[in-house]
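Objective 1b: paired records.
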Amino acid sequence: MVEGSFIDSGGHANNTIQIVEEVLDLDRAIGKALDFAAKDGQTLIVVASDHETGGMTINGGSFESGMVKGEFTTGGHTGVMTPIFAYGPGASEFGGIMENTDIHAKIYKLLFGEK
């Protein structure tokens, strides 16, 4: 399990730089996990968020310079849906829209069968 915990605090502070740096760190960690899972063939990778913070919108930027222009609607949590991504055996359990609290039940089912 890996957490990009400073993404949330960056959203609360409306700090685009902190969010971008933390997302890039998380992306590198996920990349390593995906490399392992691809070789292993028995590892499920689930990438999820428990909520969105800050109401961040990307209003510009440049791939060449690495600059991102972010704007925020709040310093608190929002009701915006967040994506869930999965790779590996059982990944199909994580498609569509779901409550974040359902993730535990789905992982439990994959590990131990129906409750």
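Objective 1b, second protein:
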Amino acid sequence: MTGTVAPARTTRWVSARGISLEVRGSGDPVLLLHGIGGSAATCGALAEVLSAHGYRTYCWDAPGYGRSADPAPSADGSTEGYDHALVVAELIAELGGGPVHLLGTSWGGVIATAVAAAHPASVRSLVLADSTRGSGVHPERAQAMRARVGELRELGGPAFAAVRAPRLVSPACGDEIARAVESDMAGVRLPGYTAAAEFMARTDTGPSLATLAAPTLVLVGADDIVTGVDESRLLADAIPGAHFGLILGAGHAAVQEKPVETAAHILRFWKELDE
């Protein structure tokens, strides 16, 4: 796939829970879930390409991110048990019941995996980009994930992003994309990030991978030093019949660094499904 893609008309839709979605194109529905330091804008370039090829794309701002409402706290005022997978399943039902092509990057992929396991009828296919089983695979990883919340609270979004965002892109990443990745992370809000980090810290999707029924594509940037190529290979090996793709010249933020190349893998995968 080469050349540029004419921008699709983008509209905004808000769910009953106050979840904001950027909507593009028409055709089979695709729901894109961004990473823990992102927003709907993170997936925008990829959504442009997919919508130009006959799909209706929905890029969410996760609860507490972008233009979405903050996650509703429990009776004790915390969001420790907030279930993003349930929110996504409810969102799919509100959009018409699906099944949807569900595409998650990093944390979004962890959510997408949980949705595919718990609500298989809602998922036409599963695409996991630079994702993981979750931070609950090891106590030290869970502790490190929860510690990020204190770091964000202490530093504030812009300084937090200045420290972390450079690790998300490949050494070959252009300045414009690198600035966009950092800008997205600089805009994270504490309520949304807190709920997201807690979801990651308590989640290990490993035991459910062998039960997944949705056709699955696992993608990873060749230069990903955050979740890493080995973790993505583990996902692909554990999920029955999963396909695996390597995005050259991209790091953890592959969907932003290489949206056209990422889309090429995805469109080829979906074409095989349709055939």
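The CA atoms of residues 79 and 268 lie 39 Å apart. Residues 10-274 form a domain with the Rossmann fold fold (CATH 3.40.50.1820).
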